[in-house]
Design brief:
The protein has 144 residues and is of the alpha+beta class. The chain has one domain: HIT-like (HIT family, subunit A, 2-Layer Sandwich), CATH 3.30.428.10. It is built from three helices and five strands. A five-stranded antiparallel β-sheet has the order 1-2-3-5-4, with helices on one face. Strand 1 and strand 2 form a beta hairpin. The longest helix is centred in the middle third of the chain and has 22 residues. 22% of the residues are buried.
Length: 144
Amino acid sequence: MPTDKDCLFCRIIAGEIPSQKIYEDERTYAFMDINPASTGHALIIPKEHARDIHDLSPEALAATALSAQKVAAAVRDTVAPDGINLLQCNEPAAGQTVFHFHLHVIPRMEADGLALGWPIVPGDMDAIASLATRLRERLDSKNT
């Protein structure tokens, strides 16, 4: 699996930087976030280094999602939150700060004050339909 010697998360996986590991398998590593948004905030990372979702292999993405499901269940059963967010960010404009693909498991409590969401405002249905057509065409061309 490719790694990057300058990557913070690759160095955590290698044991060069300490972490509070909570789960590990042959393809993924999960640990507690040291800047938690809430109690129980965990990160799941593939052992394969990839900057973001666009660089990640399908196999590593699948393994990371399966590990996130396991960690989310453990967080649910241990922390007993009212809900859980799975969050993944790509590029600084979306909030990515460590450039190794990762999933956040963020336990949520009612009225916890965390801001995640956007106003529910109806979109332009013609523009939505037009974009959906363009996306389908793009996906169809990639699958043929």
